[in-house]
Amino acid sequence: MEREHQGRPLAVIGSSGFLGRRVVRAALRERTCTVLSVARSPFSVDDPRLVAVCCDAAEPGALVAFLERARPAEVVLVAALARAGDCERDPALARRLNRELPGEVARWTAAAAARLVAVSTDLVFGAAVPGPGGFVEDDATDPIGVYGATKRAGELAALAADPAALVARLPLLTGDSEGRGLGAADGLLAELDAGLDLTLFDDEWRTPLDVDAAATALVRLAALAASGVVHVPGPERLSRAELGRRVLCDAGRDPASVRTAPRAALGVELERPADACLSGDRARLLLGEGWNRGPRAAACTTPSA
User: Fold this and answer.
1) Is the separation of the CB atoms in 103 and 62 below 8 Å?
2) Per-residue pLDDT, 183
3) Distance between alpha carbon 278 and the CA centroid of its chain, in Å?
4) The dihedral of CA 51, 119, 121, 288: what is its sign?
5) What is the predicted pLDDT for the residue at 181?
6) What pairing do the DSSP bridges indicate for beta strands 199-201 and 50-54?
7) CA distance 190 to 187
8) With helix as H, strand as E and coil as C, how does the chain read?
9) For 194-215, how does the pLDDT look when each residue is reduced to its tens digit (9 = 90+)?
10) What average pLDDT does the structure give for the chain?
11) Which of 15, 236, 253, 268 has the highest count of CB atoms within 10 angstroms of its CB?
12) pLDDT band of 258, cuts 50, 70, 90
């Protein structure tokens, strides 16, 4: 079925979160259409093209009813229960938001000739080790924990319901969370400010990405005809310890103020992935070279005693 998008809006589902806010801003910057900011407490800015819509995605049927009324041409589905600890504490809500919701939205986009980009995670991997360039899209998934397992189930549900949909797997996101202590960088600083005793793992590897680069990529991917799965990683393979040192240095903090250790030192080696790094080869084909070269924390050295 040919998908006719002219004159129809773009909807950002889950606009209240760390990433969702940035996707709304990216859509307003990158596109000329109306942008629908959809969440239980939707993000809004002073722009005549932005329409804020209150909708609780956790309520079965609520989001599909909204989509049927609004008829967007493109849907970027960001809504999720994204904190691993929250998923372990409330697996029913994790299943609702991470597994069931993508399938429901995809059934609507398929029927309505709309474009769907569903956000997923690098944590659909975890129990195995990737090749030297990181996991590629066709690698077998092996999630650890409820979060990764429900997100993988959501991927499968979305692609089964709408084969033209695109699942975008994102890594750890960094960047300014506007004082909310969200993301890999601001979350670390907020925990330090709260006086928490932190350990950064030196044997846990990821490909972190600036949140604005991620948001821009999602909006651009929504305009393309690509389907299936795409990995959207940052430009470097970093351990959590090295990422933390960079964040602290960039914030003017002493990187030696946080302890580093292997996962086994805290007995969590079976609960956390050793390596969830993603290959960005397909993203480069779709988005061009250098698409992910956004702001990043600078490397620094630990001051000598």
Assistant:
1) no
2) 84
3) 13
4) negative
5) 75
6) unpaired
7) 5
8) CCCCCCCCCEEEECCCCHHHHHHHHHHHHHCCCCEEEEECCCCCCCCCCEEEEECCCCCCCHHHHHHHHHCCCEEEECCCCCCHHHHHHCHHHHHHHHHHHHHHHHHHHHHHCCEEEEEEEHHHCCCCCCCCCCECCCCCCCCCHHHHHHHHHHHHHHHHHCCCCEEEEECCEECCCCCCCCHHHHHHHHHHHCCCCCEEECCCEECCEEHHHHHHHHHHHHCCCCCEEEECCCCCCEEHHHHHHHHHHHCCCCHHHCEEECHHHHCCCCCCCCECCECCHHHHHHHCCCCCCCCCCCCCCCCCC
9) 888 888 999 999 999 999 999 9
10) 91
11) 15
12) confident
Q: Characterise 210 by phi-psi region: left (phi > 0), alpha (psi -120 to 50), beta (else).
A: beta
pLDDT for res 295:
52
Q: Bridge partners of 166?
A: 117, 228
